Automatic annotation (TrEMBL):
This is IS5 family transposase. The keyword Ligase does not apply. Belongs to the transposase 11 family. Residues 143-327 form the Transposase IS4-like domain. It comes from Massilia mucilaginosa.
Length: 341
């Protein structure tokens, strides 16, 4: 016979605490009120002059979006999980509430950030908190890029040609236009085709925390955003990157600016690399591989695919995804006792 109890909710919550709730551990190390304050500054809350139901607190929505990124949930799944999952309700502060943000509320909050040009605000704010904990960028920086796939489009050759010219078929109705990604592009990597966007990232060697990112279409070459993701705040001037970033002029210019360039060399069919260059490549690879750990961590959070349409929403999604990765990494560093120095 199944035992019933008037205190079942409290007993389950106590057992959850005993087993270990990762979200409660995160709460010990992250100042969510400060994150919400910065989001409100970058994207002010809508005016209440016309009345209507007041919006949910920004801190609650920030917590909600971070959960969404940590567990790779769609807006619809997020709504269901908030209704169903004790740990989520407790983390966002809705344990005793009869109201929860629904899928439309979540979408509206994201649109508020996009319209205010505040897509990067959470990533920048999280990084300021990392610095407050003492985890400043150290040991040099690793630069790389990763393709993030978007939902593939079913288009005719004529429609594809029009989209390449930034035009749209006149027969498309508004409802169809909303479902077509006009900005995602195709690219090839290792002989395989991908459709979507690309995130270029800079991670520091010491802590494997992401310091800068740039979101672009998948067809844009990695090298176009190399300087944009360099982090001048890193305490070490070493830059490590793979063969895709070879550019003699850039390397010479950055070397004159005081950077120490460690970019792997690539050969060709007619001119293979020398044994010395091969050894150099291997030395660089041993350290540069640490950024692959970063991308693997983001992949675990669902950072290799998008449910969104358009570059603006991809930028918002990936900034929150990387912010979630950095917060999870911060918790690991703190709980593992890895001191900031």
């Amino acid at each position: 016979m199944i035992k019933t109890s008037l205190f079942a909710d409290q007993e389950r919550e106590a057992k959850l605490n005993k087993l270990g709730d990762a979200l409660q551990v995160m709460e010990q190390h992250v100042d969510f009120a400060a994150l919400a304050e910065e989001v409100d500054r970058a994207a002010p809350r809508p005016s209440r002059e016309r009345g209507g139901r007041p919006p949910f607190p920004t801190e609650l929505m920030v917590r909600l979006l971070l959960i969404q990124q940590l567990f790779n949930l769609s807006d619809e799944q997020m709504e269901f999980q908030l209704l169903d999952r004790l740990s989520f309700q407790r983390f966002v502060g809705l344990r005793s509430s009869s109201q929860i943000p629904d899928r439309t509320t979540i979408w509206t909050f994201k649109e508020r950030l996009i319209q205010a040009g505040a897509s990067e605000s959470i990533f920048e704010t999280v990084n300021r908190q990392l610095s407050k904990h003492g985890y400043i960028a150290r040991g040099g920086q690793m630069v790389d890029a990763s393709i993030v796939q978007a939902p593939k489009q079913s288009l005719s050759k004529t429609e594809t040609a029009l989209l390449k010219d930034n035009a749209m078929p006149i027969e498309w109705k508004p409802a169809k236009r909303r479902q077509k990604d006009m900005e995602a592009r195709w690219t090839k990597k290792h002989g395989k085709s991908y459709f979507g966007y690309k995130v270029s990232a800079n991670a520091d060697k010491r802590y494997k925390l992401v310091r800068r990112i740039k979101v672009s279409t998948a067809s844009e070459h990695d090298t176009l955003h190399f300087e944009e993701v360099l982090d001048p705040a890193n305490t070490n001037r070493n830059i490590l990157a793979d063969k895709g970033y070879v550019d003699g002029e850039r390397e010479e210019l950055l070397s004159k600016q005081g950077w120490r360039m460690h970019i792997q060399r690539k050969g060709s069919k007619d001119k293979p690399i020398s044994a010395a260059q091969e050894r150099r490549n291997n030395r660089i690879a041993k350290t540069r591989a640490r950024i692959e750990h970063v991308f693997a961590g983001m992949a675990q959070l669902g950072g290799k695919a998008l449910r969104t349409i358009g570059l603006a929403r991809a930028t918002l999604q990936l900034n929150w995804k990387v912010a979630a990765y950095n917060l999870r990494r911060l918790v690991y560093l703190k709980e593992a006792g890895i001191e900031a120095f």
